[in-house]
Prior knowledge:
The complex is a heterodimer of chains A (255) and B (252).
Chain A: H1 5-9, H2 17-31, H3 35-49, H4 54-76, H5 84-123, H6 126-132, H7 137-175, H8 180-189, H9 193-219, H10 224-254
Helix pairs in contact in A: 2-7, 3-7, 4-5, 4-7, 5-7, 5-8, 5-9, 5-10, 7-9, 9-10
Chain B: E1 2-11, E2 14-24, E3 29-34, H1 40-47, E4 55-60, E5 63-64, H2 70-79, E6 80-83, H3 95-105, H4 110-123, H5 139-151, E7 157-161, H6 169-184, E8 188-192, H7 196-202, E9 205-210, E10 213-219, H8 220-224, H9 229-236
Parallel strand pairs in B: 3-8, 3-9, 6-7, 7-8
Antiparallel strand pairs in B: 1-2, 1-4, 4-5, 9-10
Helix pairs in contact in B: 3-4, 3-5, 4-5
Amino acid sequence: MTHDSRLTTYSPPRDGFITHIGRRSLETFRAVADVPTWSPLLVGQMRRLGVDSVPIALFIAVFTGIVLSLLSSYIFTGAVPLYFVGALVGKTVMMELGPVLTGMALAGRVGASIAAELGTMKVTEQVDALETLAYDRNAYLVVPRVLAATLMFPVVTAFAMAVGVTSGWITAVNLLDLSTPEFFKGLRMFYQFKDIWFGLVKSASFGAAVALMGCLQGLDSKSGAQGVGQSTTRAVVLGCEAILVLDAFWALVLL
Amino acid sequence: MIQLDGVTKSFGAQRVLDGLSLDVPDGRNTVVIGYSGSGKSVTLKCIVGLIEPDGGRVLVDGGVVGEMSREELAELRGRIGYVFQFAALFDSMTVAENIALGLARRGHDRSTIARRIEESLAVVELPGTEGRYPAELSGGMRKRVGIARAIALKPRYILYDEPTSGLDPVTSAVMDQLMVRTRDLGVTGLVVTHDMRSAFRVGDRIAMLHEGRIRQVGTRAEIQASDDPVVRQFIEGRPGQMAAAAPRRAPG
Ligand SMILES: Nc1ncnc2c1ncn2[C@@H]1O[C@H](COP(=O)(O)OP(=O)(O)OP(=O)(O)O)[C@@H](O)[C@H]1O
Ligand SMILES: [Mg+2]
C-alpha cells in the first residue's frame, strides 16, 4: 500500500473540531483590523460571490413560490378562506424558505468555489508565498470573502423573496380560484416588517457561515487534488449544517 | 545574519531535520546541497516561519523567529525574499500583478512599482511578459518570474529554492550570474540546489545537508577537495549507497 506521509501528518491541529473552528474564527476576526489589506478586495468578491449567484437563487424562488401557492390552497380547501394562500406564501417565503433555500444553494455555489480556490492556493504554496510577501492570510483571503458573503447573501435573498412572492401570486391567479386583490389581502393581513428583516438577518449570518467554512476548509486542505476535493465537499456539508443550526438559533432568539 | 541552531523537525514518525546548525554570513552566497527529500525546502521554510521547528532556534539578525509576534514576523518577511521551488505564482494574477503585490505591501508608489516590475523582468530575461498569466508560461518561465518577484523587493536576504532546476543550461547560467550579481549588490543569498555546476558557480560557501544535519560546510575549494565519502559521492554524482539518503525514522 502506498503511504503518503503528507496526507496523514499534515492535518489541522488535533484539538476538537469546535475549538479549531473557534480559534480560526477568532483569528479571522482579529484580521478585520487590517483594513488596508482587505478593503481593496471587497468589491471584487462581492461581485463574484453575490451577483453571480442571483440566477440560481431566482430559479429556486420561482419554483418555491409555485409550490407554496398550490400546496397552501390544497391545505386550506374548505376549511380556511382561500385568501390565506397569500398570507402563507408571503410568510413562508420571507421568513423561512427564501433565506434557507437561497442559503443552501449558495452554500453549494459559494462555499464550494471558495474552498476549491483557497485549497488549490494552499497546496500549490500560493498561500505560503502570500505570507512570505508579508501579507496576513486571514486579512487577504478570508476577511474579504466572509464580509462579501455577509453583505451579499441578504441582497440575493431579498431578490429571491420578491420573486418567490411574485411567482406565488401569479400561480394563485392563474391556477387557483383566487383574484389579485384577494391574494394581496391575505399577504397584507399577517405581514409585519419584522418578517423581512428577520429573513435578511438570517441570510447575513448564513453568508458569514458559508464563506467562513469555505475558507477554513480550503486553507486546511491536504496536498493533492484529492485533498482539495475533500475540503470542498466538507465545506459544502458544513455550510449547510451551519445554516440549519443558525436557522434554529434565530428562531429561538428572535421569534 | 541568519543562524540555525540545533533545529529539529519531524513530520509524524519521519525526522527530517535532526539538530541542524548553520550560519549564513552576510554579503555572501551560501549554497545548501543535499539529496532529494533531505529537508532543504523545510529548512528554508523554517527561516521565514512558514514551518515551526520542533526544537532548536532560528535567528535572523539576532531575533528568534519562533518567538516573534505577528507584526514582527511580517516585518522580518519584509527583509527576506523567497523563491519557491515550484514558483508558487498567484495564478489568478498576471505576471506584473504577481510582482506588484509584495511591492505594494511595502508601500511603494505606483511609478516605483512599475519601474521595479520592468527592471526585474529584464534581469530574468522575460521582458514584455507583464500581462501574461502564469498558466500561459512554461515551467522555466514561471520559475524566473518567481525569481523576479523576489528580487524586485530588493530584500536584505534572498532564499532561493532550486532556482535553476528545470531551466536549460544557458538560462541556468544566466540565473547563476544573476545570483552572483545580486550578491555583489550586498544581498545575502541562501541557495538550495542539487545542481553541482550551479553550486560551484554561485556558492561562496557550500554546505551539505545529510540525514538532518550539516555534513560539511566550507568554501568552494574546501568542498571540492573534501575527503568525506558522502560529500564526494554527492558532488561527483556517483550511484550506489543511496540507502544512506533514504529518510530516517525517528526511534519509537
Ligand atoms: N508539509 C509536510 N508534511 C509532511 N511531510 C513533509 C512536509 N514537507 C516536507 N515533508 C517531508 O520532509 C522531507 C523533506 O522535504 P523537503 O521538501 O524539505 O525536501 P527537499 O530536500 O527540498 O527535496 P527536493 O530536493 O526534492 O526538493 C520529505 O520526506 C517530505 O516528505
Ligand atoms: Mg525542495
